[in-house]
Design goal:
The chain is α/β, with parallel strands linked by helices and 328 residues long. 18% of the residues lie in helices and 37% in strands. A hairpin with a 2-residue loop joins strand 2 and strand 3. The two termini are 33 Å apart.
């Protein structure tokens, strides 16, 4: 089966102010990788990524063999030509910013001769509702009729289908708020369909390989620390919090209900609350604004040349009082 993932930035939420949500890391790997893994779980053997920058995508993701499929990338203006030339009965289509977890769906539940829309269940104020994920199993001709080339995956919303697939877990990142909410749901769900790598070093706290946590750091609630993360003295983390790989948090910083993306250096005394940090930009989810921080002493990216400096800066005090993990 062919899978088509819509990665066009104009479809991925203006709240991200130019960032690429599909490249955000959700725990230990990018959202786009989660999308590919879910499609492979559903039986897709070839993934086509719709993106403006096809060469960058192919360079970043390679052939796709490590996920048990093959990759190709096409620009938006080539979608119609691609669909017309397809000689397949069914195609799975999805967005790059809303990824349903299909691991609990058996292959018998997919009906390849009709359109099936994939919904997620949400509970708002005690009322359960079904929300369309932007994912569907359909036929190439249906996509052509729905003008997928111009409207993207959202163009499928008004499709009438006689069959619906419902999932309990869904990763959404159309806005910083929804991204943080998905992070909270996964951290709070012991039976989550989202699998991340690491070991539980204390109840509710997971750490990947080579995590260094200072003994004076304080953790409240549920937290995930990615590979090579370093947490300095007297840092406070109030979950749900995810600090992604290769990041360093300097002394006396406070992180609450936030996501720190890979390769980030948080300076001494930094404070995050309901924020997503991408490189040198802080997305304030409550205020709906993006704040660029130009002071490298407060926020920077951890390039390889910067790593040794950060190590010395973080561990100059009580450097022997640390917890270091070797989780696989």
């Amino acid at each position: 089966m062919i899978g088509l993932i819509d990665c066009r930035s104009q479809d991925l939420g203006i709240s991200w102010a130019g960032a690429q949500p599909e490249m955000l890391e959700f725990f230990d790997r990018p959202l786009l990788q989660h999308a590919v893994e879910q499609m492979v779980q559903a039986g897709v053997t070839h993934c086509v990524l719709v993106t403006e920058d096809t060469s960058a995508v192919m360079q970043r993701w390679g052939t796709g063999e490590r996920w048990g499929c093959t990759f190709s990338a096409i620009p938006p203006h080539s979608i119609v030509t691609f669909l017309v030339g397809l000689d397949v009965q069914s195609i799975m289509v999805g967005r790059g910013d809303c990824i349903p977890c299909l691991s609990g769906i058996s292959s018998d539940e997919y009906e390849t001769t009709q359109t099936q829309l994939i919904f997620r269940e949400v509970n708002e104020d005690g009322v359960k509702q079904r929300v369309f994920t932007g994912w569907a199993l359909t036929q190439p001709q249906v996509l052509l009729e729905r003008c997928f080339a111009t409207s993207g995956a959202n163009g499928l919303k008004s499709l009438k289908s006689s069959s619906v697939i419902q999932v309990s877990t869904c990763i959404c990142c159309d806005t910083p708020q929804s991204f943080l909410k998905a992070q909270e749901v996964v951290l709070n769900s012991l039976d989550s369909a989202v699998i991340f790598h690491g070991m539980q070093i204390k109840p509710g706290v997971w750490a990947a390989r080579n995590v260094t946590l200072h003994s004076t750091a304080r953790i409240i609630g549920k937290v995930y620390l990615g590979e090579n993360v370093r947490i300095g003295p007297h840092v406070t983390m109030i979950g749900p919090v995810v600090v992604c790989r290769d990041s360093a948090v300097n002394a006396k910083s406070v992180i609450a209900d936030s996501s720190v993306q890979p390769g980030t250096y948080l300076g001494r005394g930094m404070s995050l609350q309901n924020d997503v940090v991408i490189e040198r930009v802080i997305f304030r989810s409550r205020q709906g604004v993006a704040v660029k921080v130009d002071d490298p002493g407060r926020l920077a990216t951890t390039s390889m040349s910067f790593v040794e400096y950060i190590k010395a800066l973080l561990w100059s005090t009580n450097s022997t009082a640390l917890l270091q993990t070797n989780a696989k």
